[in-house]
Amino acid sequence: MSDAAGRMAECCRRLADLGLIAGAAGNISVRLAEDRVLVTPSGLIKADLGSEDMVEVDLAGEVIRGQHPPSGELGLHLQILRSRGDVTAVIHAHPPVATGMSVAGQEFDWDVLPEMVFLVGRVPVVPYGAPGTRELAKLIDPFIEGHDTLILANHGAVSMGASLDEAQIRMETLEHSAKIVFTARLLGRVSHLSRDEVRRLEGLRPNRDRSRGLLDGPAPGHYKPPKES
Fold this sequence. Notes:
This protein is of the alpha+beta class. It is 38% helix and 15% strand. The chain is globular, with a radius of gyration of 17 Å. It starts with a helix and ends in a 25-residue tail after the last helix.
């Protein structure tokens, strides 16, 4: 447990240093065993967390060990971990530019950079649900299978991976790419990769059997942000 907890504390500091979380916002979970999960605590400044602050729970959300209450977004994490046996770690953060696009009612142009297609894949926008509610956990359900990163409308983003490193790489890549896309939009033009190149990069992706391509049409439940009135 201590190794996983220490790595989670390091990840929290990294996310804070990059401006992807602030204060007590954001949360991380790591699967310890088939029925046990380690999660960040609620209400504490994430950049200050130590390994001793992490909370161990079961897949029903019952606390097994820990001196603090678990994250208020525990339901979201458990929904993903119960649905995806290949996922070991989940990160929920508030990347400013990627989140800002959803606040502006804009979809994310994920097929413009090779690293996005290969490392992150297609990024759907999940309809808004109040943070920490069962409603939000249910809203993400149609998007979990076949996607490794989600943008939560007017809220933040979620990345998942077979390791905490993989989930962290996806979150960092999402925000870095969002900054590039935002810059391209300011300059007046976004150039997308060719259809053949997207297919080639998707074919190289790990777990590509779960990945739906952009060129295959919208994935089930794919949500388009409303246009500004």
